[in-house]
Amino acid sequence: MEGQEDPQPTGQGSPATRKAVDLARLIKEDCSRLLELYKERETFPENKTSEGGPHLVSVAAISSPDVLTTVERVWHHRCALRRCLELLERQIVWEEEEMGEGGGEYEEVRQAVKVRLGHLLHSTRVLLEAEDVDQGSDHLSPDHDCTQGTEEVDSSNTMNMKIWTHHLLQDLIHWTDSAMKTLHIFHMERTGQQEQQEL
Amino acid sequence: MPVGSFYWKPQRVDSLGPTLHSACSSYASSSGNSDRGTELLVESIMILSNIISGRNRGKSQLLLFNLHPYEPPSMFSTLLCILCLILTVRPSLSQDDSPLGVPQQISLEKDSEAQRLSVTWKCNLVSVFDIEIYRTELMEIVFNETVELSGEKNAGDCHWNWTSAVPLECTSLSVRIRSRDLLRVSDWSPLQTTEGDDLPDNTGAKVYPLDKVVLVGSSTTFCCILGEGQVLEDIRYMRSIMREVRLSRRTYAVTQTLQPPSNTSGTNVFCRATDASMKTTVEGAVIFVGYPPADEELMCETQDLVSAICQWKEGRYTHLKGKLRRTRYTLNGRTCEVVKNVRRCTWEQWEGNWTLLAKNPLGKKEIKDSAPLSHRVHPVAPKNLSILVKNSRNATLQWSWQYLGYKAFPLICQVNVASNGVSVTRNYSGAGLSLVVLEDLWPYETYRVRVRCGAENNFWMWGDWSLESSFQTKMDRPGTPDMWIWMESDNSGQILWKPLSKRESNGDLIGYEVTQGSVSGDGAQRLDVPVSQLSVPLGLQNASEPVVMLLAHNSEWTSHTSQLMVPKYWADVDVTGSEISSRDGGFDMSWPASANASRGYVVEWFNTSCGQYCSVDWRKVPGTNTSARIESSGLQAGIRYTISVYTLSDEAPELLERRHGYLEEMVPAEPVPFLEASQYESSVLLTWQEIPLHSQRGFVRGYNVYLANVAKNTLLAKISDPSVRNCTIRKLGLGTYKFTVRAYTSAGEDGGSTVSIMLEPYTDLLVFEILISLAAMSVFFILVTALCYRKRQWVKKAFYPEIPEPKLPGQWRTSQATVDVKPSPHSMVHIVENPQWDSSKEGLVPVSEEDEDGDESGSEPTDTDSDEPGLLRYYNQVVGDSGQVLRLPIDSSSSSVGSADTDVTYTGIQTSPGPLDTPPQMEAMAAGGYRPQGQVVQQQQQVDRSDADAGAPSSASFGGYKPQCTWRPDSPDGNAIDGSVGSPTSVNSSQFLIPDVSSEDSRNPASSTTWIPSFLSSKP
């Protein structure tokens, strides 16, 4: 899914799904800026191979998307983003303890990502809950943890934490991008269904 | 203290025993005293002898020289030194036979954070060891020195620490030791190794040291342990690629010197390596570079008079943050937490002495403060400010204290009173101060007050300001209005007064009351005026000693009366006001002191050219002053002001002085008006009018008169008297002139008025000249006429000589029928010339037919009877132009008669030379000269007849001189063109053919006009 162009801004359809897509796009842009600022601050050397390395946050079911419905994919993406938010909050706490509270652009963008990610999780939770009502199924509980492979990190080693943070920011970009596209598909499907119902 | 003392293990002096030490010291200190020195020396030798004898074995490693600084070594001293040397070398010599033991049970212990390696081994008497440290893999020696242990022995164990520049995790290190005793050494111990992280079992890549904290400017060595199978790409310190040194098969090291301070997240060191699959991995470490604490200025104070609040400043920034690296504080041994960089600690009870300890991984700093409580009182802000009593000019302010301790504490308080942007601070003091009276307030004014206090005794600092409280004072009597009367004429004027300011009103002003009357109180007229109005017209109705009174009212009070007697009107023209100069945007007016100024002076000023609605301003000056500066925002540049000084007394104000001035002179706003130019003969008089006063914009100092040319203006006259408004420009030639007149002030000239004038010839003179000329000519002609009249006989002779009657033979008539006359208007002229006249009458020449034709071909008109010049031209041209003079024989007339196309004209038969000059023979010739004429007459008659036959008017009636009589000079008929016009006969004969005497009297008046042209055409 990566490398494809972002879906165009949604014009019509369900306001909730459209809002979720727009919010995911905004978070992705914020995460990209956040990674730039972090690499600039930490003078990280170019290492393209590490950027394609294993994710801190992974969802097993996503690896076989063909067998998943769009709703299920949204659900799995929400799981991943929720895990990302947890890790981001841990990272914030760790940085503030070790480096003090800064007031630069990096800290501002990081805070924005944290808040907007919470909004996106709330939006998708509402969507999934509505979908459960519609579909009559409750197997996709929004609070169920579906992630795997998350690694613990030794926070006493500052460099380990920095590299871990670098990976976390890359994962954030990955998952927000993927979630944005999945939500767009979800939005288009809902829009089509509404039009059919109206007809 | 003796200089030159040489110690080698001075601590061993104690082990040698107090006896030798005291002996040597005593000797050294008493070397100035020879007797005592000798005794001590003997004592020292005895002690040394005991040592040599073995009584102090094992405690003899002392070599001591004790030299006096100012004395050369004496013989005794030299001996003492020799003994000591012997003592020193004796033990080694005595042990030659026992080998040194190899250090046993070597153990290594490493402190990675401190990069310190602790070596422990079993040792006995030996204190000197050779120690070697190798990097195990490459067996590169990193340390090789001889060390002497002193006091580190503990129950036979020797202990030695070594700090490595390279982190101990970087690679394995091996240590071996041998004992040394002067010239003898033991065998090396077996290598003892401490393992690094680059062992094959540890396959992962790592970078060391981890999270180390170092001082700014220090050097740090980092090492990168590659993973198995990896190849190093580079090691970077931040963004700088470092030059690495290989420590082992997998370990590389770099050293960064002079490290700059880190940012908050530390300085990163990255190690990049690639494996066999060319995959790049990045490992790294973080180092924190900063400073030790430098906190300063600890200051403790109290606000509640019980507890303490201690504050301090950070000083130099440490660049170290985070829970492990930040600076930690303890105040009097108790931890102080710094939250958000607020360095402040509280203490429940005042202790008097305070010690703050600041500590971080790089060091610590201790700062102290000490003071009694009463010296460090920082009062809290007063609370609950309120106004108890408020009047028009004072108020009572009250507040309360937060703590009970303030009730009896001596305080000094500042009350800040602010109103309309003006802030005043007043000090009050007292024990437990909580109430003050604010005085000198303005009536009906809103004030904002706030209070802060400090300790009256042992003042430390002001406390915090309280919250603001506001109140308004009550109203009071308005101030007396400042009134003035400006007289516009003898009977009218304006009663003026200045508005009362808010401060002067002392309340809401509601209006004024103006009363006009007389001193006696008769005929008073009262008028209420609203606040917005500041003047009323004054009308005098024959009141004696008129007076004006003015009152101001606010909501509650009435002002005192302002009273003024009406001054006398002084017209501006009646008072010659001198000029006054401005300075720095105002006028400095001064005047002589006056005895009548019992109530001072009034300086009044207004725009001189303001007209009816004049804005008059004034200023009252105390009687002690005789000068005032007039400075007002209303003063404008280029405006003439009339400034008057009046004396004030119980009587009417009297004018003392009047002056005029400009705040700033400018060039006139408009040019001189009505500029006119008048010509007087060769002069031009320029006149103009004065520039209106409002347009002068400065004192006109004069006028410049220019002659305006295209290129430039030429200054003709400079008139420095502004009252002169004309100028005469003299001696001008004819032509057009432009004159420009410019008025000038001290600021310069105006734009100028230009007038143009064209100078014409002087007409009267011309007429006069013409009349003179005509008169002269008239006199001349009268004289000539008179002269001619008196000499008329002579004139007659000269111009009209007697012509004898021609005598014609009888047969001459009969032959005339044979004359063949060609009827051509253009007859050839054959001039009968008297050869004797040839020399004097060149003009009388016969004209050939060809010449005649040639003349005809030209443009010369043929009409010859209209003007005499034409006649003259005709003949002169004929003669002169031909250039050929036909010399005909005297009888050529017969041949000419025979010519068919020839007319004979007697032109030029002049008698101008007069009878006086004419020779007698010439007269004879003239007498016979008329025969051709008679032939011509005959021929003419013949022609006339033929003409008559052709219908032409007949002219044959005249005989002899008929042609003379038949000439019609003024009205030649159309037919005459054939016979008369162009015919020499028709014209010239009238002039030169002398008419018949008998018919002379019968000539018409026209003949009188013919003689003048004849006279003019005659040649002498």
TrEMBL record, chain A:
Annotated stretches, region: Disordered: 134-153
Basic and acidic residues bias locations: 136-146
GO process annotations (BP): ciliary neurotrophic factor-mediated signaling pathway; negative regulation of neuron apoptotic process
GO MF annotations in UniProt: ciliary neurotrophic factor receptor binding
Family annotation (Pfam families): CNTF (PF01110)
Protein name: Ciliary neurotrophic factor
The species this protein was found in: Alosa alosa
TrEMBL record, chain B:
Region forming the signal peptide: none
SMART domains, per the entry: FN3 (SM00060)
Superkingdom as given in the UniProt entry: Eukaryota
Ranges that cross the membrane: 765-789
CDD domains with a match to the protein in the record: FN3 (cd00063)
Gene3D superfamilies the record matches: Immunoglobulins
One Pfam family here: LIFR_D4
Protein name stated in the entry: Fibronectin type-III domain-containing protein
Native organism: Alosa alosa (allis shad)
